[in-house]
Design a protein that fits this description.
Its cofactor is Mn(2+); Mg(2+). The protein has 3 domains: 95 residues, 3-Layer(aba) Sandwich (Rossmann fold), CATH 3.40.50.20; 56 residues, 2-Layer Sandwich (Dna Ligase, domain 1), CATH 3.30.1490.20; 232 residues, D-amino Acid Aminotransferase, Chain A, domain 1 (2-Layer Sandwich), CATH 3.30.470. It is 32% helix and 27% strand. It has 14 helices and 23 strands. Strands 3-2-1-4-5 form a 5-stranded parallel sheet, with helices on both faces. Strands 10, 11, 12, 17 and 18 form a 5-stranded antiparallel sheet that branches. A 5-stranded antiparallel sheet has the order 13-16-19-23-20. Strand 11 and strand 12 form a beta hairpin. The N and C termini lie far apart (48 Å). The chain binds adenosine-5'-diphosphate (ADP) and magnesium ion.
């Protein structure tokens, strides 16, 4: 019997999930709420916002949806999975208690300390004077984080004491992140390259994905402000099987174990961001969902039926599951609006997607793009994800950048060095 699926969310990640689910032999109707201009091409967009749980649950009930897949962090942190389960609706993603590992950096750090998971040395503060004294004692470089969800803007990597003091001022005195800044994590600065790990879990068992690498900073050579992510590659050629095993043993397994012990077994995607430091892997943070753009490259490489493994994860039946991946590499280049991650203008016509889509190995995923009077226009900071696969990382990158050049909109910005470090290594 065909399986009807509802995907919640409307970014590049959700377009990639929809694109992949559409290829499943057992997919029935596919709905995306609210979706975007790209998801409309593979399924039916439903005008309900990702945070409007009641109406999403009503819709799932009414349409007899067999599986609802939650993409973004916010609804998970607010307990959408708990509500769906309460109403007897089958849903994929972590409960509110399990998603707390992303929603509270303070909770995640304490859990890591308790479970012996390698992470930066830290202290947690809720009082500005105490935090300031600690920062002055430790000196720069130092990292200051608002504990709660802050749209990827709550982390200050401070190279000077003055920067650290002004970060504390913004978070704890001006309350720029509101309640998200009530607790502040102050931690040791870590050196090394950053990678993303994704583990698909079902509350008891888990399966690791290949390692991937995002490029967080807006400028080339990793300079400038942090963004939601400017491009990704997978797998990461210098992260071997042994390193991955080490991360599984020292990070993923003990973290999932500790969550279960806390009465919050995790199902869905657990995504630790790691620094590969000279002293081995160290966790920067945990996310409780797919990374975006990482999800886009994973969907390009995944060989196994996505619907099968999401159902197994939702039903607690992952034990013994093998996930198969295509050989070669997948990459993604984010096309952003000029000015992002600061203020930017919207509403510029976007052209050239059709031609770009025809470059061998290329698939374009939509994010901040809308339809206005029948035309595609920019509507967000990250506009499109240009993904490509290839037998080598170099081939995949060349294809993606060829497609990038064919797409145009006013203020189009992208990094020209996605994957460059991995290529040079
Ligand atoms: N201890 C640290 N040392 C060096 N860089 C860090 C450290 N913690 C975070 N960062 C940098 O800041 C970015 C954002 O931090 P992260 O904890 O992932 O928060 P979020 O993704 O919620 O903004 C990371 O991707 C990393 O580049
Ligand atoms: Mg992060």
């Amino acid at each position: 019997m065909a399986t009807d699926v509802l995907i919640v969310g409307g970014g590049g990640r959700e377009h990639a999930l929809a694109w992949k689910l559409k290829q499943s032999p057992s997919i029935g109707k596919l709905y995306i709420a609210p979706g975007n201009g790209g998801t409309r091409l593979v399924g039916e967009n439903v005008p309900i916002e990702a945070i409007d749980f009641e109406n999403l649950a009503n819709f799932a009930e009414e349409k007899k949806i067999s599986l609802t897949v939650i993409g973004p962090d916010n609804p998970l942190a607010e307990g959408i999975v708990d509500l769906f389960r309460l109403r007897g609706l089958r849903v994929w993603g972590p409960t509110k208690a399990a998603a707390h590992i992303e929603g509270s950096k303070a909770f995640a750090k304490n859990l890591m300390r308790e479970a012996g998971v390698p992470t930066a040395e830290f202290e947690i503060f809720s009082n500005h004077d105490d935090a300031l004294a600690y920062v002055r004692e430790l000196g720069a470089p130092i990292v200051i984080k608002a504990s709660g969800l802050s749209l990827g803007k709550g982390v200050y990597v401070c190279m000077t004491l003055a920067e650290a003091e002004s970060a504390l001022e913004e978070i704890m005195v001006q309350h720029v992140f509101k309640k998200s800044g009530d607790e502040v994590v102050i931690e040791e600065y870590l050196d090394g390259q950053e990678i993303s790990i994704h583990a698909l879990a079902d509350g008891k068992d888990f399966v690791l994905f290949p390692p991937s690498q995002d490029h967080k900073q807006v400028g080339e050579n990793d300079t400038g402000k942090n963004t939601g992510g400017m491009g990704a590659i997978a797998p990461v050629p210098w992260v071997g099987a042994e390193a991955l095993k080490d991360i599984e043993t020292r990070v993923v397994r003990p973290t999932l174990g500790a969550l279960a012990e806390h009465g919050a077994p995790f199902s869905g995607i657990l995504y630790p961001g790691l620094k590969m430091s000279s002293q081995g892997p160290k966790v920067l943070e945990f996310n409780a969902r797919f990374g975006d753009p990482e999800c886009q490259v994973y969907m390009r490489l995944l060989k196994t039926d996505l619907l099968d493994i999401l159902e197994a994860s939702a039903d607690g039946k992952l034990a013994g599951t093998k996930i198969e991946w295509n050989t070669g590499f997948a990459v993604n280049i984010v096309l952003a609006s000029g000015g992002y991650p600061d203020a930017y203008k919207k509403g510029f016509p976007v052209t050239g997607i059709e031609g770009a889509d025809k470059v061998p190995g290329v698939v374009i995923f939509h994010a901040g793009i809308a339809i206005q009077g029948g035309n595609l226009v920019t509507s967000g900071g990250r506009v499109l994800g240009v993904s490509a696969v290839g037998d080598t990382l170099k081939i995949a990158l060349d294809r993606a950048y060829e497609a990038v050049e064919l797409i145009n909109f006013e203020g189009k910005y992208f990094r020209r060095d996605i994957g460059a470090k991995a290529l040079a290594q």
